[in-house]
Amino acid sequence: MKSVHKSVLIWYSPQEMFSLVTDVARYPQFLPWCDHAQVLEAAPDGATMRAEVGIAFAGLHQSFETLNTHKFGSDPMGESGIFEVQLKLVKGPFSKLEGQWQFLPVGDGQSRACKVVLDLHYGFDSATLSALIGPVFDKIAGSLVDAFVKRAEQVYGG
């Protein structure tokens, strides 16, 4: 089992970063290894989403499907809070794939800044899959936070 833990402080709001991560259909526009991505099913209230993401990297083509649960930042008092995306494998080349994005307000929550945290845990059923897909997914997982920070700069300005 492999794990990735990445975090960064950035000058974009939790809501802005949450919106980028949950906009799955746009992944191929800015993730160079992503050859397709689509929302397969979404709850009307946006609380859950089933999505498929395709990997095309170093001649390897694979896709996987996840069920994502979304938490929308407002606490019961209406204050801005933590936005989260929890993902769990539905199907794909992994024996396990689960993780969590967190977008935490910085300071009093009134500034346009947040801490982005990604925790990802994954493994493969066979040694062959691990040898073929493992190094590719290690690179992808290690660069995800940076890719979304660059996307925020493109979408929201630097």
Write a structural description.
- This protein has 158 residues and is α+β, with helices and mostly antiparallel strands.
- 27% of the residues lie in helices and 44% in strands.
- The chain has helices at residues 14-22, 27-30, 127-156, and strands at 2-10, 34-42, 48-57, 60-71, 83-91, 96-105, 114-123.
- It has a 7-stranded antiparallel β-sheet.
- Strand 6 (96-105) and strand 7 (114-123) form a beta hairpin.
- Helix 1 (14-22) packs across helix 3 (127-156).
- The longest helix is centred in the last third of the chain and has 30 residues, at 127-156.
- It starts with a strand and ends with a helix.
- The model has no long low-confidence stretch (mean pLDDT 91).
